[in-house]
Structure prediction request, 181 residues.
Amino acid sequence: LEGYFKTTITRQLESTAEGTLQSLEFARSQSYTEEQARRHYNIIVDFYSTNTQTYIIVFDKIGRVSACSSNTYKYIRHQLPQNLVEKVATGEEVYDTTEFESFFGFKALVLGKPIVPAGIVEGGIFCAAPAPILSQLKGEIFRLIQWAMIAALICALCIGYFITRQISKPIREIDRAVKAI
Prediction:
């Protein structure tokens, strides 16, 4: 189950990152002033973050945050994990669950993708989803399975009791007849 949830969330993070990067690329192609571009980037990042319930951080090659979702602002006081920033800055995709724990204060499944508009890496994007959701969902499913198993056991015992009574009824009648004789 945990593997299934991680795969599902990883796919969601990949599509979020791809959509965000495509929208940022389109915004970059417009003739915006620097302030307009920054505002537009934040709107795009917020849109994807809100619709996918993820944390999104866009950064340059040295790890300076250039845009982030509004739910991520409170974490920006911490520095991005430099080793992951360096990997993304070299053009590598990164999947991680441990490095961002000190950044967010909770375990998160993180996908890092480079921003490569013209064959040159200009920075990257981190998309993160809280990992506690995985254990919470796993716990709820196991609880449901436990209750279903208990209900099935009770039903099986009741059905078994009534079937046993039906099967043993003729034997009891024969036993009474033999005793009467």
About this structure: The chain is about 60% helix and 15% strand. The helical segments are 2-29, 34-52, 82-89, 101-104, 132-180. The mean pLDDT is 83.
